[in-house]
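Per your request, structure below.
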C-alpha cells in the first residue's frame, strides 16, 4: 500500500467563506471535503463512491495551506488526513470507498 501526499491551498477569497461567518470566516466542511475528494480522485483511475467517515477537528480559514495524506490500496477504502502545514495539526480525517472509473 503506497502513501501519498498533496498540498491544498485554500483561496484567500474562497466564495463559500464569505457569509460563513461574517467577521470570522471559515471554510464549510462540505467545501473542504469536496477539495480533498478532488485531490484523491486526481491521483488515479478511481472515483469516490462512498464517504465512509469524515471527522472535522478544527476550523479552516481562507488562505490556509493544508497537506493531505492518504494511502492508496489497489481497490477499496482509502484513509486520509488533512493537516495544517505550520503546526502539523489535523483538521480533517476520514475514509472513503473508491471504485474504478
Amino acid at each position: 500500500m503506497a502513501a501519498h501526499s498533496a498540498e491544498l491551498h485554500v483561496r484567500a477569497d474562497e466564495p463559500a467563506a464569505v457569509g460563513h461567518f461574517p467577521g470570522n470566516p471559515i471554510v464549510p466542511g462540505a467545501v473542504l471535503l469536496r477539495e480533498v475528494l478532488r485531490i484523491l480522485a486526481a491521483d488515479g483511475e478511481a472515483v469516490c463512491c462512498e464517504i465512509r467517515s469524515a471527522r472535522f477537528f478544527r476550523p479552516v480559514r481562507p488562505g490556509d495551506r493544508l497537506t493531505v495524506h492518504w494511502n492508496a490500496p489497489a481497490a477499496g477504502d482509502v484513509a486520509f488526513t488533512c493537516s495544517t502545514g505550520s503546526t502539523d495539526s489535523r483538521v480533517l480525517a476520514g475514509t472513503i470507498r473508491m471504485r474504478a472509473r
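Residues 2-17+24-100 form a domain with the Thiol Ester Dehydrase; Chain A fold (CATH 3.10.129.10).

Regards,
D.
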